[in-house]
């Protein structure tokens, strides 16, 4: 069996350029010293730690540009196929991935990027002095694929370029900066890809003004193209002014009434303003009033407000029918003119303002500020998605956005517990009063007082149209009859596309912000989010935030626990569900868990043990005498256990089923042990890790949190485990494999030490019903109340879950177990082993007989 582990290993295998240059490149080498000036110019352009301004950078870079580059470009990209196919000693190894024909620029060592001409993959040397700035740029224009310590991989995609354009980057700036950062001239194929993709992007905007939807553009010819389409033409609302021609329909975007900054509350800028105001130097800061915030905002990342067409007289627009918004958006997408959605909230005089501001004590962190600057970069609210690691404070980002827009806001989350947490966080960070925040769940149906306010609910409460109670119906009328300034969509990656569509079409909102930590799904529905919400506006780097102390440093380890012979024999004989239970209940895993709990309790850590399987959860917790919470645990009991865990030194360890995967904010936890999990779900792994990323002690010197995944050796669990780790490995985490825990054998009171005890455990596992063996059984008890899972309660229908759709595909595909690097090399050996297995213990012989009799009875 082969197990591939570790970030570096992964980095290597996905890094096609690691071989050295061939001799021809060496001939081309100019004296590196000659280029010292050039490299110095590059690094001095963007001092470390400074925020990069791409357009400015592009201009500066252009000035320092050497004519030699142009020659290189020509040489590098215009090579004939014969020239490319050169025979070096290693080219046969790399075959199609031999890019040694690309010319390195003479000063390549001071440039941090490589760009693949074939597929738009970009490799970044993360150890370069200008890596930080390059990263900012790459995150804006491409999708991060993998970001381990030294080498990062990104990919240029249509969506990433769409996102780049939407935050204000220009085609030529993208190409220019890319070229200057690249060790090889940007290949022609990539240049044309960028030009092609950005040609139409960002040219059309959907703007809601004075409660009417307008398709807006600076390019009249683009609007002409759109209006040639029958569907769009029919959706157009003919106004008196706009009837004759597009030009006649010129819709001059209203000029901001007050010139000045749009200051995002909680930012350094806001702090400065407050100070100035206190010293009597400047205008008074926004105090939650109507238009006091209507000032000019300068974006942190390169979009100067004065470059934005806000006051451009040449903006053309035509109005479209509200009812056809979704169809028009879809059609524009198909025509390759995706519409950017922006909300000019400062000029919205129709919707009532909401008196909300951050409390003076609230200061947002730099990455939170950066992400928000992408949203408000041109003084309007752009719709899109912000991706921040678990525990990095997405809630506060959402709240700050609401405080900036200051209009009625609808927050949708995945469970009723999250709803309560959002409300609590709104109260904690902002000056909003209790009367202005309403909650809409199965148990509470509140409306806010006054003209504006905040409603917090779950996706299912809003999307479900069946079996609504009278109260729910009235509440829905309240939600659909009004216009929302802002809709906040928490955990966007988990919501089924159909549910999303329902929400987005029934609720009329001017701007949308999606929040998530893991923009991954095991299906291919991620692309839908682009169209329904908007492009990804920002994605933070997990390792960066850990290095700066915003999230904890985590040591990840996979502990391999050999199966005992008896358990393994049964494992080979049994069917899939029982197999799962067998590898969860493996006595050696039990012992490893006990050992690690003891070890970390002695260090003073607070430990959460996760098990998806409730049977295993109870068995472990009872045997090791620790409190546990699963879907069946009552609310009062849950709260009591969580309180103990937080405040009592006597409770250092708790066991949680998947009800604790998301939303639980337990900053005391410093160690995680995972004994069973949901197949190959990358998201679950990341979200569980998120429970310790917020560790309170994260800034203690040398502090590390610990994440152990216990895996029964030579079982399917190893296969899933590899898949699960993929997301975290791509974020730069390295999983160590521990094959032996020193001192385990000598641990006092070690459980299941004797063979008899192990056999007794095995019999209890074999006697467990199929139902108990099922990893999904916890859902029955309404677990979503505590976790991010949607429950029957959320649908307002006791005991009934929403309808499911049958789709084709393998279990492996559904659970994300594809593209594995773990391979069982000798499957037939296992079958043989099962056939030749020694006679079973008499206990099981009896059980086998009973099972055979039951099967016979059920057949007859
Ligand atoms: N700017 C800030 N200043 C102080 N504390 C903060 C700040 N931002 C976030 N936090 C704290 O960080 C913790 C994590 O925040 P939050 O629960 O919003 O994270 P999250 O990103 O939503 O995580 P998850 O995806 O795991 O739910 C909370 O305790 C929150 O109070």
Automatic annotation (TrEMBL):
<dbReference type="GO" id="GO:0005675">
    <property type="term" value="C:transcription factor TFIIH holo complex"/>
</dbReference>
<dbReference type="InterPro" id="IPR050615">
    <property type="entry name" value="ATP-dep_DNA_Helicase"/>
</dbReference>
<feature type="compositionally biased region" description="Acidic residues">
    <location>
        <begin position="25"/>
        <end position="37"/>
    </location>
</feature>
<dbReference type="Pfam" id="PF13625">
    <property type="entry name" value="Helicase_C_3"/>
</dbReference>
<keyword id="KW-0378">Hydrolase</keyword>
<comment type="similarity">
    <text>Belongs to the helicase family. RAD25/XPB subfamily.</text>
</comment>
<dbReference type="InterPro" id="IPR027417">
    <property type="entry name" value="P-loop_NTPase"/>
</dbReference>
<dbReference type="GO" id="GO:0016787">
    <property type="term" value="F:hydrolase activity"/>
</dbReference>
<dbReference type="GO" id="GO:0006289">
    <property type="term" value="P:nucleotide-excision repair"/>
</dbReference>
<dbReference type="InterPro" id="IPR001161">
    <property type="entry name" value="XPB/Ssl2"/>
</dbReference>
<keyword id="KW-0234">DNA repair</keyword>
<dbReference type="InterPro" id="IPR032438">
    <property type="entry name" value="ERCC3_RAD25_C"/>
</dbReference>
<dbReference type="GO" id="GO:0000112">
    <property type="term" value="C:nucleotide-excision repair factor 3 complex"/>
</dbReference>
<feature type="domain" description="Helicase C-terminal">
    <location>
        <begin position="591"/>
        <end position="745"/>
    </location>
</feature>
<dbReference type="InterPro" id="IPR001650">
    <property type="entry name" value="Helicase_C-like"/>
</dbReference>
<dbReference type="Pfam" id="PF16203">
    <property type="entry name" value="ERCC3_RAD25_C"/>
</dbReference>
<keyword id="KW-0227">DNA damage</keyword>
<keyword id="KW-0539">Nucleus</keyword>
<dbReference type="InterPro" id="IPR014001">
    <property type="entry name" value="Helicase_ATP-bd"/>
</dbReference>
<dbReference type="GO" id="GO:0097550">
    <property type="term" value="C:transcription preinitiation complex"/>
</dbReference>
<dbReference type="GO" id="GO:0043138">
    <property type="term" value="F:3'-5' DNA helicase activity"/>
</dbReference>
<dbReference type="GO" id="GO:0005524">
    <property type="term" value="F:ATP binding"/>
</dbReference>
<feature type="region of interest" description="Disordered">
    <location>
        <begin position="1"/>
        <end position="44"/>
    </location>
</feature>
<feature type="region of interest" description="Disordered">
    <location>
        <begin position="266"/>
        <end position="291"/>
    </location>
</feature>
<keyword id="KW-0238">DNA-binding</keyword>
<keyword id="KW-0067">ATP-binding</keyword>
<dbReference type="GO" id="GO:0003677">
    <property type="term" value="F:DNA binding"/>
</dbReference>
<keyword id="KW-0547">Nucleotide-binding</keyword>
<feature type="region of interest" description="Disordered">
    <location>
        <begin position="63"/>
        <end position="83"/>
    </location>
</feature>
<dbReference type="InterPro" id="IPR006935">
    <property type="entry name" value="Helicase/UvrB_N"/>
</dbReference>
<keyword id="KW-0347">Helicase</keyword>
<dbReference type="Pfam" id="PF04851">
    <property type="entry name" value="ResIII"/>
</dbReference>
<dbReference type="GO" id="GO:0006367">
    <property type="term" value="P:transcription initiation at RNA polymerase II promoter"/>
</dbReference>
<feature type="domain" description="Helicase ATP-binding">
    <location>
        <begin position="375"/>
        <end position="537"/>
    </location>
</feature>
<feature type="compositionally biased region" description="Basic and acidic residues">
    <location>
        <begin position="268"/>
        <end position="278"/>
    </location>
</feature>
<protein>
    <recommendedName>
        <fullName>DNA 3'-5' helicase</fullName>
        <ecNumber>5.6.2.4</ecNumber>
    </recommendedName>
</protein>
<keyword id="KW-0413">Isomerase</keyword>
<dbReference type="InterPro" id="IPR032830">
    <property type="entry name" value="XPB/Ssl2_N"/>
</dbReference>
């Amino acid at each position: 069996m082969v197990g591939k582990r570790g970030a570096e290993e992964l980095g290597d295998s996905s890094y096609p350029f690691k071989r050295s240059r061939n001799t021809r490149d060496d001939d081309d080498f100019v004296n590196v010293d000659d280029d010292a000036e050039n490299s110095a110019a590059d690094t001095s352009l963007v001092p470390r730690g400074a925020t990069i301004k791409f357009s400015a950078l592009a201009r500066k870079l252009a000035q320092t540009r050497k004519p030699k580059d142009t020659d290189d470009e020509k040489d590098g990209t215009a090579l004939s196929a014969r020239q490319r196919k050169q025979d070096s000693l290693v080219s046969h190894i790399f075959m199609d991935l031999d890019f040694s024909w690309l010319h390195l620029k003479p000063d390549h060592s001071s440039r941090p990027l490589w760009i693949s001409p074939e597929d738009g993959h970009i490799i970044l040397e993360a150890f370069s002095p200008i890596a930080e700035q390059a990263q900012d740029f790459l995150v804006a224009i491409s999708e991060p694929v993998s970001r381990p310590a030294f080498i990062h991989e990104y990919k240029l995609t249509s969506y990433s370029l769409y996102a780049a354009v939407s935050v204000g980057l220009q085609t030529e700036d993208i190409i220019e900066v890319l070229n200057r950062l690249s060790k090889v001239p940007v290949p022609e194929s990539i240049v044309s890809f960028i030009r092609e993709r950005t040609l139409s992007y960002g040219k059309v905007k959907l703007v809601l003004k004075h409660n009417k939807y307008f398709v807006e553009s600076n390019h009249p010819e683009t609007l002409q193209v759109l209006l040639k389409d029958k569907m769009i033409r029919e959706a157009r609302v003919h106004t008196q002014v706009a009837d004759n021609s597009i030009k006649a329909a010129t819709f001059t975007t209203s000029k901001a009434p007050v010139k000045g900054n749009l200051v995002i509350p909680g930012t350094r800028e806001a702090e400065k303003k407050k100070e100035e105001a206190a010293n009597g130097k400047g205008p008074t800061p926004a105090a939650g009033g109507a238009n006091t915030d209507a000032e000019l905002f300068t974006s942190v990342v390169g979009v100067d407000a004065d470059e934005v067409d806000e006051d451009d007289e040449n903006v053309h627009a035509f109005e479209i029918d509200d009812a056809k918004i979704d169809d028009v958006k879809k059609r524009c997408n198909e025509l390759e003119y995706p519409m950017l959605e922006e909300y000019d909230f400062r000029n919205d005089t129709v919707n009532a303002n909401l008196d909300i501001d951050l409390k003076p004590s609230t200061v947002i962190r730099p990455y939170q500020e950066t992400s928000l600057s992408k949203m408000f970069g041109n003084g309007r609210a752009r719709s899109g998605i912000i991706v921040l690691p678990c525990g990095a404070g997405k809630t506060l980002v959402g709240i700050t956005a609401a405080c900036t827009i200051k209009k009625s806001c609808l927050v949708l989350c995945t469970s009723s517990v999250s709803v309560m947490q959002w409300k609590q966080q709104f109260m904690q960070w902002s000056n909003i009063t209790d009367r202005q925040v309403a909650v809409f769940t199965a148990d509470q149906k509140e409306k806010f007082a006054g003209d504006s306010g905040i409603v917090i609910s779950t996706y299912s409460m809003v999307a479900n149209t069946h079996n609504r109670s009278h109260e729910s119906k009235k509440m829905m009328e309240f939600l659909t009859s009004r216009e929302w300034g802002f809709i906040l969509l928490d955990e966007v990656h988990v919501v089924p596309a159909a549910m999303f569509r329902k929400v987005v079409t029934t609720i009329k909102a001017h701007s949308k912000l999606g929040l998530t930590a893991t923009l991954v799904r095991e299906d291919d529905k991620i692309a839908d989010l682009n169209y329904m919400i908007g492009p990804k506006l920002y994605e933070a780097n997990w390792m960066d935030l850990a290095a700066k102390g915003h999230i904890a440093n985590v040591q990840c380890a996979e502990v391999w626990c050999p199966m005992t012979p008896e358990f393994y024999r049964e494992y080979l004989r049994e069917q899939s569900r029982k197999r799962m239970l067998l590898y969860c209940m493996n006595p050696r895993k039990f012992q490893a868990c006990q050992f690690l709990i003891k070890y970390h309790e002695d260090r003073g850590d607070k430990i959460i043990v996760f098990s998806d399987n409730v049977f295993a959860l109870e068995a472990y917790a009872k045997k090791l005498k620790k409190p546990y919470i699963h879907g069946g645990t009552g609310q009062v009991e849950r709260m009591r256990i969580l309180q103990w865990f937080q405040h009592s030194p006597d409770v250092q360890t708790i066991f949680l089923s998947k009800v604790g995967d998301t939303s639980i904010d337990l900053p005391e936890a410093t160690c995680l042990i995972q004994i069973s999990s949901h197949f190959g779900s990358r998201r679950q792994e990341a979200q569980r890790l998120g429970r310790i990323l917020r560790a309170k002690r994260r800034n203690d010197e040398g502090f590390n949190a610990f994440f152990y995944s216990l895996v029964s050796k030579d079982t399917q669990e190893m296969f899933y485990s590899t898949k699960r780790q993929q997301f975290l490995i791509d974020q730069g985490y390295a999983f160590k494999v521990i094959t032996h825990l020193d001192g385990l054998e000598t641990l006092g009171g070690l459980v299941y030490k004797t063979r008899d005890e192990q056999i007794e455990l095995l019999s209890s596992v074999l006697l467990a019903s199929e139902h108990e063996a099922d990893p999904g059984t916890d859902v029955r008890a309404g677990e979503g109340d505590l976790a991010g899972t949607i429950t029957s309660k959320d649908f307002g229908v006791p005991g009934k879950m929403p309808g499911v759709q049958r789709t084709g595909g393998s279990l492996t595909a559904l659970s994300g177990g594809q593209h594995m690097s773990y391979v069982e090399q000798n499957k037939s050996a296992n079958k043989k082993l099962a056939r030749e297995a020694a006679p079973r213990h008499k206990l099981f012989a009896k059980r086998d007989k009973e099972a055979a009799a039951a099967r016979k009875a059920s057949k007859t």
